[in-house]
Model the fold of this input.
Amino acid sequence: MEKVEKWGLFELALNGKSDGNPFTDYEIRAEFEGEGEKKQVKGFYDGDGVYRVRFMPSHTGTYRYRISGSFSDVQTEGMFEATEPTGNNHGPVRVLDKRYLEYADGTAHYSFGTTCYAWVYQKEELQEQTLRTLEKACFNKIRFCLFPKFYQYNESEPQMYPYVRGERRGVDEERLKRHLRMTFHTEKEILDITDFDCFRFDVKTFQKFDARIIQLCEMGIEADLILLHPYDKWGFSDMTTECEKLYLNYVAARYGAFRNVWWSMANEYDLTTKTVEDWEELAAAVTEADAYGHLISIHNCMGFYDYHRDWITHCSMQRQDFYKHVEYTADYLDEYEKPVVWDEIAYEGNLSMGWGNISGEELTRRFWEAFVRGGYAGHGETYRNENDVIWWSHGGVLHGTAEPRLAFLKKIMEETPGKFLKQVPRMFDEVVGVPYQTEVARTRPFFDPVVYCDYELHYYSFGRPSYREFEFGEDEKFRIEVIDTWNMTITDTGVHSGYTKVELPGREYMAIRLVRVE
Amino acid sequence: MEKVEKWGLFELALNGKSDGNPFTDYEIRAEFEGEGEKKQVKGFYDGDGVYRVRFMPSHTGTYRYRISGSFSDVQTEGMFEATEPTGNNHGPVRVLDKRYLEYADGTAHYSFGTTCYAWVYQKEELQEQTLRTLEKACFNKIRFCLFPKFYQYNESEPQMYPYVRGERRGVDEERLKRHLRMTFHTEKEILDITDFDCFRFDVKTFQKFDARIIQLCEMGIEADLILLHPYDKWGFSDMTTECEKLYLNYVAARYGAFRNVWWSMANEYDLTTKTVEDWEELAAAVTEADAYGHLISIHNCMGFYDYHRDWITHCSMQRQDFYKHVEYTADYLDEYEKPVVWDEIAYEGNLSMGWGNISGEELTRRFWEAFVRGGYAGHGETYRNENDVIWWSHGGVLHGTAEPRLAFLKKIMEETPGKFLKQVPRMFDEVVGVPYQTEVARTRPFFDPVVYCDYELHYYSFGRPSYREFEFGEDEKFRIEVIDTWNMTITDTGVHSGYTKVELPGREYMAIRLVRVE
Done:
């Protein structure tokens, strides 16, 4: 009997009807039943008369399945064995305690994302280079688009398209006109090119995404799939609702069984021609089609989407303010009671615009501010170069300085007792995180003596203290480590009791870690 | 006939009664009448049987005066001639158009303040050193306390006291007890030492302040006098209202005729034992006693005082948030319709606490953010050193890196056509200031084409653009200068029309200046 790991991918390929438009004219359904679950999923047409069904078992043991639907006159049944997961297979990422992210097996997911919006649409060599870069980097999530991207620095034609060319079908002409008024593009640029038939997927493109998502999965990297976005000149951002739903169902059937998939309904949803009602309808289509309850969110440009909505599993945020953003992490955790993932906090680079020209120091600072407060953050890199190959959109290699520092922070996060931190109120000039399960004494900063927790991470951001003072009890003992978050050093200052003055180098980006010892 | 410059100091010394307590038992009044004004002022007792009357003429021409009061049984009359001001005598600083500061003669005051809270209470040599430092620095305002300071790094006894010692009188014992509960100090530290008679000024101390304020005036530096503050162990911050008014009247009589005086009712008013009602009563005492309408404000620690109050001429602000503060300058200008003076935005240094350990780069950035938006900012320096001589409180020499950059910004501000800037809405990643009189086209950032003003200062803060683009009209001509605000260079890129791409070094702290040419 075929064996598949729990949270692994079971796939069946079946021949079926290929006349007419198999994407719309026929359907393929499957029912899987194991000892711990019973699920109905849809299959999808993959071209050349081949239909596929994919399934991710969430339990071990024997599964039976039955395939049905109009795609074929033959009914198929079978069995497979789901085995214990091995290696880096920890299952899909889920929400823990309304604040945090962990894999299904209980392993913490410290989400260190990066962004390469259109990397799968680049030339093959560049994609391979991107994968080699990811192999060495600390990122465990990558955010990218299923549709190609047309935008500043993204003006070459992509290597492939999600739809086949021919007669323009499935584009909402009213939306397209509205889109024209909201964009830099000329009417000619957009209207002349949109000859895609949005009822017929180009399966080669989706097969390429299959391969890339699986490669990412093998590397332990979550694929944060951006389903829709506004950077478009082909009509894909202005399809009819019918075609959008066709697409979303196709994507859910095709990628839903990949354990490392997250759904991002949109990048910068508020730059599209769709209304909130449209988005709600489309999100419902995805959650209904997704048999596994993958993480799902929607990403803003200016104002946040209402993350209170039931279907949203986590806040996928872009900073709303140029100056202050990740510093609100604990506020948003309280407000939305969902994990806070800062998917765009400006990128390290030197592009013209402020979203793409902060320093590695500043990007690293933003990561620390987010993580010590119990949130997560995403990286991106936007260094101008001769070939216009920019990591943030095309992938390739990293030119910046932040990534090793993010790896250093990730290592420190992995050492957190009880997995995750929450922020506790202390002095105005420090961010203090403690294990999230810690019961924290309610004291007034400044007026009351500090009650220290067993583990504390103190971050001083752009402040440059040359020392900090601690008032431990005479019978308390704390190991104190001085962390240089930029130079990536951890210096053990020994075990201290009572009043303790810790000398610091008077540089920016320092942290102190306290660990109570017996 | 004696000659005194308009806005200069006319002073009379008269012998009078010295029995009892001349500070409370006798009074001295004067009436001055010139061609343009008629004023009543009070004189003050200066010890050894000498009473003084000081007067600042606000017009040229002949003035007659008459001295009266219980201090003497003799009536004195006389005349003097007020002449045209010379040198750096531009008159006192006043509010211009609810937003800005200028001298009475119409010269712009670009307020570049610094802070040396207790410099006049230090040893003579150190005070002299402070003056030598000020002589070379760009500061045109200095903020300091009339009462001595007891605080972290300020624990040595001062060189003098404002009151004579003896029996403790004039301290409000209830306030003192409340103060004890709000402070780091032990009961012993405070209660043992407060043997000052708050009905009897130590005139030597006030004479020293006379001399220092006059020296500052000669150097063109405004003296932002902090009248009351909470950093105290002598009882001066907890006097009875009676003694507080006695003191404020004394100070108004003594220093009101100095053209370079600003009144700061308090530093960190919200750390004192006084209520808002108390402050209102005390502020009324000052404005009533001040015959000249000097600038007057009150400075916060946590929450701003209500700057809408009629008596307040400008907002003397301390940042309320660790991360974002001067970036709100235009909002506060709109909210309060008064000049915004950021008297505390953290100091360059390396002390333990966040108020005293930012970098010179960051302090300079905060100045730029404030000034381009039409506000003013204050400097301070807090580098830890062996002698605990810290500029912010003691004066001495500067160790930091910001001051030359502030001088550079001041020079750029002085080149503003029409004196001052106001912020105009543009892209999210730039701060753009234009001459405040400019009528600005109402356009939507991003969606509408930019309508450029004749003079624009663009600041990019921590962003690191390697270029910026401008869309001038084909018949518009602009000279574009690239300003490196940290390296203090201005590079003229020539005159441009139409689409213009300006190359930048991809470093932080850059600015661009546009000047329309014919």
Remarks:
- Residues 203-218 of chain B form the longest helix (16 residues).
- The CA atoms of residues 61 and 140 of chain B lie 29 Å apart.
- The radius of gyration of chain B is 25 Å.
